[in-house]
Amino acid sequence: MLLFAEVLGGAESVNSNKEIPIDDDMIMEIGKNSKEAFEKFYYATDKVLYAYILSFLKNHEDTMDVLHDTYIKIRSAAHLYKPMNKPMAWVFTIARNLAMTKITKNKRTLYSDKPDIENDLSFSYVTDVEDKMVLITVLKELSNEERSIILLHAISGLKHKEIAEDLKLPLSTVLSKYNRGLKKLKNILEKKGVRYE
């Protein structure tokens, strides 16, 4: 119920994977074909990347496809990574580019049989009913940046400063879009009859 609490009550987010630092050394180890480094990287970033990619694609199946492609791309390109003390910015760039490619490809093929988000019960990382309702609202009503920032903070537990660095945005922009997005969500949910204390 983290996302629901975040939107309606301001509860602090928790990221159970934060104890594994993602740094340049880890990416360099992946570039040397270290299975251990890649496994640690995967378990430290899977929820963060899922939330980020979902903010663009708004569809579980497409998100899972792009998530898979992102890890393949990271594994195959890690040897080219240039240390810059911002490995997650590099990772987010890869994920965003692959998500945009997927969107373009879906538009070109007139992918009109996409399931309605509300009837899609397969969001694997969101099991709480109230969280799913908030997530559906986030995906339908917010701008891409608002979605990304709120999902990265609420679901993945990233701090606003980390989000700003990873998305290459000023901290003030991240904070204002986050607060504006939360206000928008609260208003929408109140109109839908969601009560909170």
From TrEMBL:
CDD domains: Sigma70_r4. Residues 48-109 form the RNA polymerase sigma-70 region domain. One of its GO terms (biological process) is DNA-templated transcription initiation. InterPro entries: RNA_pol_sigma-70-like (IPR039425), RNA_pol_sigma-70_dom (IPR014284), RNA_pol_sigma70_r2 (IPR007627), RNA_pol_sigma70_r4_t2 (IPR013249), RNA_pol_sigma_r2 (IPR013325), RNA_pol_sigma_r3/r4-like (IPR013324), WH-like_DNA-bd_sf (IPR036388). Residues 134-185 form the RNA polymerase sigma factor 70 region 4 type domain. It comes from the Bacteria. Pfam families: Sigma70_r2, Sigma70_r4_2. Keywords: Sigma factor, Transcription, Transcription regulation. SUPFAM superfamilies: Sigma2 domain of RNA polymerase sigma factors, Sigma3 and sigma4 domains of RNA polymerase sigma factors. One of its GO terms (molecular function) is DNA binding. PANTHER family: RNA POLYMERASE ECF-TYPE SIGMA FACTO, RNA POLYMERASE SIGMA FACTOR SIGZ. Belongs to the sigma-70 factor family. ECF subfamily. This is Sigma-70 region 2. It comes from Anaerofustis stercorihominis DSM 17244.
